[in-house]
Fold this protein.
Amino acid sequence: MKATIVFSKNWNAINERNEDGSNKYRYIINKGSSRSSKTISLTQLYDLYARNNNGKRCTVWRDTKTDCKKTVLNDFLKMLKRENLYRVNQDFNKTESIFLYSTDSTVEIHGTDDEETVHGLTQDMAWLNEPYKISKETFNQIDQRTSDFIFIDYNPKKGHWIEDLIKDPRSIVIQSTFRDNPFCPIEQKTKILSYQPISYSDVVLSGLISAEEAKTYDLLINRLSFTTKQLKELLRCRENHDKNSASNFNWQVYGLGVKSERPNRILHFKEISLENYLKLDYDIIVGVDWGAVDPFGIVEAKYNDGNLYLRELNYHSENKIREKISATERIQINADSSDEVAIEGGIVTWLFKKLGISKKVPIICDTNRPLKIASLRRAGYNALQANKPKDSIVDGIDLLSNLNVYYTSDSENLKIEQENYSRKVDRYGIIMEEPEDNNNHLIDPTRYIALYLKIIGKIKIV
């Protein structure tokens, strides 16, 4: 079997043991660049593991089963056929996308869009392939139903809950780049190398010359006696700049496989402990962004003298909340269905009561669900419509950028959103003023709060 060092590291990880004989690692996280062989190495591992172990259930997950079939399943089939292993002591159920081995082990393709499968299926090994759209809650459901190992492979192109999982003492991070893959196609390797800036060339990183000097360094005279390899790399990096393909972000993420701040990132909030937040004796304001299918974002805030403190109260969608509530709670929610306002707002008023939100505090709500606002008012809450005139999004962003904004340590989704909330980029790569309509289910209600505070005169920034 043609395998890379990435396969070896993963195979070694599942075979390492503690002194008591238990598995040393539970979470095996493959973090790296494009074409570093992360995915193909895990398909090889899954196949070899299923062939050599009896009765093991090995699952693969992406956000949808369709996507998982187009990517991982396709790579799995290519690997098996290339290694002449397809259907050798193995059957493939094409309809269900399940490989059944003579050992009675299986490799199964799944999608987290099938919630019944997520909540009902148990497995010995689970692999989350590029889980950018898979929530922490969904991961937890899979995690608690997996007996042995969890594999994750991803490019660190955005903030994600994986960063917290890495801190678990049972985690191992296997870092890799395209250079670890001797089978990387030359055209794909060339594309990745086209991202490398001059500042990341060896002669600059080694401190032999500054990035500015490297731009005009005479490669023929070569007064500093750089090696042929160094000269070739510097020449390529200079050509990358000339054709505008050089990119710090793309090189760090897709070339080096490390996390990089997006060049169009907007916000830079800071973290504080929940304990310190609760000690702040300032007035509370709540912001709301409605969401039946998308996250139903609720943020609590405190403000004082240029400092805005935030705590995430809810990120579950209404549909997700309904799935979790008991039959008794469902009856309570549906008790008053006498008119349209009550029907529309039942889950909302129930949730606000459950979260302990005071009826005295201002609740600044997105204007797109007037019946929900009406239901909160009927229930006695001080629900107000957000101020959303033309250009309010850009104005709100500018306002937040001029404040010291903090989020509590338990605000997991707020942390991720503020890292990933970015401005649009046009087809020429020019960063625009308007933000992307993404990563904003908690950022939007935060904007509503800031604009409200400015309107009532608490925030005096011009």
Remarks:
- Residues 48 and 63 are 25 Å apart (CA to CA).
- The longest strand covers residues 146-154.
- Residues 196-244 form one domain.
